[in-house]
Amino acid sequence: MRTGFITQDNYAAIPYGTKQLMIIHNGQQLEVVNTQAQAKKFIEQHRSTPKTGTVFLDSSLTSGKIKRPRKKL
User: Fold this and answer.
1) What pairs with residue 29 in β-bridges?
2) Which among 11, 29, 59, 71 could disulfide-bond with 7, CB atoms 3.0 to 4.6 Å apart, if both were Cys?
3) How far apart are CA 34 and CA 9, in angstroms?
4) Measured between alpha carbons, how far is 26 from 8 in angstroms, rounded to an integer?
5) pTM of the predicted model, to two decimals?
6) Rg (CA), the chain
7) Of residues 30, 54, 65, the one with CA closest to residue 44
8) Rounded-to-integer distance, Cα 61 and Cα 40, Å
9) Gap between the Cα atoms of 46 and 50, Å rounded
10) Angle of CA points 41, 3, 12, to nearest 5°
11) What is the pLDDT of residues 18-60, one digit of tens each?
12) What does the pLDDT average to over 62-69?
């Protein structure tokens, strides 16, 4: 039987069946993988993927002035 692990940011890879691991994050089942290496790789990729509702700001917008496009004549 496999052993699982838990990270500090609410990811868990728990034994699923006899040979697999299920990855859970905040109560949601994300993926079923075969090895701990696959679980760690999936978690790293999931951390870096933008989530629904994530907004990325342009660094020029954070300087204080908003550049507006010129009106066409």
Assistant:
1) 24
2) 11
3) 22
4) 12
5) 0.64
6) 20
7) 30
8) 35
9) 8
10) 50
11) 899 999 998 899 999 999 999 999 999 998 877 666 565 555 5
12) 58
- Whether residue 6 is predicted with pLDDT greater than 70 in this model: the reply is yes
Tracing tokens 């999931």 back to the chain, one arrives at 46
Place of tokens 């075969």: 34
6 CB-side CA count, 13 A: 4
Q: What is the DSSP string of the chain?
A: ----EE-TTSEEEEEETTTEEEEEETTEEEEEESSHHHHHHHHHHHHHSPPTT--PPPGGGGGSPPP-PPPP-
Token reading at 26:
């905040």
Q: Is residue 37 a contact partner of residue 44, using CB atoms and an 8 Å limit?
A: no
